[in-house]
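thread: overnight batch results

M.L. [08:02]
morning all. the overnight job finished for the chain we discussed friday. pasting input first so we're all looking at the same thing
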Amino acid sequence: MKSIRRRLTRELLLVALVLLGGGWVAFFLAARTELIEQFDATLRARALTLTTLAVREGGHLRLEAADRLGRDFSLARPRDFFEIWDAGGAPVLRSDSLEGADLHPPASSSNRGVIWDLELPRGRGGRALAVYFQPRIEGERTGPAGDGGRALLAVAGTREGLDEALTELQAIAAAGGILLLAAILWGVPRVLRRGLRPLDDLARQVSGIGADSLALRVDVAGLPAELRPIAGRLNELLARLEASFERERRFSADLAHELRTPIAELRSLAECALKWPDAREPSTDRDVLASARHMEMLVTQLLALARGEQGQVQARLVKSRLDEAVREAWAPFAARASARSLQLGLELPPVSAAVDPFILRSILNNLFDNAVDYTPAGGDIRVSVEAAAGNGARLRLANTVDAFEVADLPLLFDRFWRKEAARSGQQHLGLGLPLARTYALAMGWSLSAALEPAPSRLVFTLENSR
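M.L. [08:03]
and the structure it wrote out:
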């Protein structure tokens, strides 16, 4: 299993090592370059001093303040060296510290100077600067122009001090790099662990929630802003799961309640038939048949509801007249409505829509069945159809109700839900409206309910916006 923590740790370590390691190497190179430039600047200063003191007199080149220069470049102090060549390349002056050796400047020497590394007398490493210059003529402030009077000066110095400084710098850089690497390897995982601690806390909270503790919720207030949306959606999911589990528990209890009565009747009738076989009356068989039909209707509707919820109901949509479908579906209920003195109001202009005729007939049968049985005697039922936006259509069924509240609306489409005051024996199982909504969804329509006040009317709306 892939671990986000391990992946982040590897990537953060890699990024930190690349960035900090690159910065550390850049710092080392910059410090090394600075030390070398300081050494070269010292050589340039010495070369400038020597070119300023160089004087051409009677065709010969000499240096002013030779005594002081002799001390600086003496054999007793063999750290600094110089050598001067005339325009023909013949050496004319050199320091005693060279002990007769030559500095051998490269052929690419110029007025700007060339710097190179070399080996000095006694096998010591050194660094030198060679530069062309124009010596001053005795009695004049500046020498005459022209290459014929040019001379070449080479100034050198031992690298011991520079090499010691570079070695020390390398040691510091290596030690610092090791400490930096150790700090990164030690710090990044701990920082990452502390940063991901809220995620671990969220995981612990979620792991404590089970089927028997769905009422628990994740504490959103204590989480970082990045995790709050996740925790909020998780709480919403838990709420839906809790409601779903509660519906399943209520469904199991309602199903047991619905089956208990017919099963008890069947058992009672069977026991009576076995105990008094000679006294068996024809009504006994009628009661058995009624109980069997009740259970058969219950099982049939449950299977239809399960198939609909699993998307197994395939709708075959054809263009049909809604007004004609309403009239045909109402015909079987007209006598029952008249027996209860119910007033029917129809507004059925010609409206066509894409429907499955069989599914639509099942939906209307369930709606009319509920309306006829639950509308108070002497009440009214109003049915209307109308065209909606685009090619859509809308069907509304409103019937007067008693003792029905807004709080009952969310329960209307729950399985086995029946308002206690509206029970009518075993005729209604509380599955008609859930089945009607499932059929509507299978057809691509929606079925909703609302409550209108004064007079109180329950309004069902079946519509399709397509």
